[in-house]
Design brief:
single chain, about 130 residues, alpha+beta, Ubiquitin-like (UB roll), 4-stranded mixed beta sheet, two-stranded antiparallel sheet, 6 strands
């Protein structure tokens, strides 16, 4: 099992994050090593702090209106290696070590396994 890597963000860094009117910010999750984008989810201030302090991704479910830590029910945990915020402070990026089958609730490795266009269907090398 990977070890957690807590990240000590400064108060200035945390105050640079810009939340939307619902108090949320989008968080992109990318796999360490491959650079593959695994998923996009939402965080509030509490789940961002918990993610940074614990070294595991924790999100806010807009549909359930509750906190959820990735992998608590599926076993497909995400261990944070690095964390970034963009130039405007309105999008987060987490580089993680993905444990288990994958990031998508469908069982796919990534949530981005479908493509637009004539070819359609799955992205090469992904489930779908």
């Amino acid at each position: 099992m990977p070890l957690p890597s807590p990240i000590a963000a400064t108060p200035e860094q945390l105050s640079a994050v810009r939340y939307d009117e619902a108090g949320l910010v989008p968080a992109i999750v990318q796999e360490d090593g491959t650079g593959e984008v695994l998923m996009l989810a939402w965080m509030n201030e509490g789940t961002l702090r918990e993610t940074l302090e614990s070294g595991r991704t924790v999100f806010w479910s807009r549909s359930r209106k509750s906190r959820w830590r990735k992998g608590d029910t599926s076993g497909d945990r995400q261990w944070v290696k690095r964390a970034y915020y963009d130039c405007d402070g309105d999008t987060l990026l987490f580089v993680v070590e993905q444990e288990g089958a994958g990031a998508c609730h469908t069982g796919a490795r990534t949530c981005f396994y479908r493509s637009f266009g004539a070819a359609g269907g799955a992205v090469a090398g992904s489930a779908g």
